Amino acid sequence: MKTSLLKKLILGVAILYAPIQSMAWGAEGHRIAGQIAESYLTPKARKAIQAILGYQSVAIASTWADFIKSDPAYNYLSSWHYIDFDKVYTYPEMQVFLKNDTNVDAYTKLQFLIAELKKNDLSAENKALYLKLLIHIAEDVHQPMHTAHADDKGGNDFKVNWFSTPTNLHSVWDSQLIDFQQLSYTEYSTSINHTTTAQRAEWQSAPISQWIFESNQIAEKLYTEIKPGDTLNYKYNFTHIDIVNQQLLKAGVRLAGVLNSIFG
User: Fold this and answer.
1) Are 69 and 22 contacting, i.e. CB atoms less than 8 angstroms apart?
2) In sequence order, which residues have a C-beta less than 8 Å from that of residue 178 and are 6 or more positions away?
3) What is the pLDDT of residue 125?
4) Among residues 220, 247, 76, 63, which one has the least CA distance to residue 155?
5) Phi, psi (5° rounding) for residue 25?
6) Exposed, middle or buried, 86 (CB in 10 Å: 0-12/13-18/19+)?
7) How many CB atoms are located within 10 Å of the residue 31 CB?
8) Fewer CB in a 10 Å sphere around the end CB: N or C, the chain?
9) Are the beta carbons of 254 and 123 closer than 8 angstroms?
């Protein structure tokens, strides 16, 4: 009987742990970007979003799309979180590729969600669903490995070690680098949220195709720096944390721009 109980506990932990391992940016990263986005909302957008989300902040709502992975009814959302590529593109080439993209991926679904949320007759249920997804996916595409290689599943099959822990390149950029800073999401967002008006205007004027291209360019460089089986530690953190912070900051600022254009 004790053995049966232990097996149930192990299974329960495994079920809870599995979706966390596959989160983009991890809960911490999503909340950092969400907290930054909230700081740049217009009063009108803030009020409209509060009417949809109720007591949830943008930061807290940003993780819903990952937590819901534990419910099979939402399996259809899996490919909405990323867009993988099978070759290196110049920006003009990527613009053409995305213009003709008919796949179910982060790019096509961001376009869909923005268009839907602009409709006046959208049901309250769909407003809440689509807003949570938009928040999450807009942040996702700023995580470089969510715009990476198709053949290794965005770095999930690129095995490395984070200090002494076996992991993969995708997870390092999802969570390990951010968690290594040992800050709460509010402390982290406060520490990096320093932008100028001109900087925000430039980032927010960029189309989604440029968001994806910038992330993909970072991903391509990351692949060239290491090989499978390498151990990443203090030096990797030192040389890459500024990129992480810049991408989190861009994610928050750009998300605010999209939300303001819809609601503000």
Assistant:
1) yes
2) 25, 26, 28, 29, 32, 188, 244, 248
3) 96
4) 220
5) 60, -15
6) exposed
7) 24
8) N
9) no
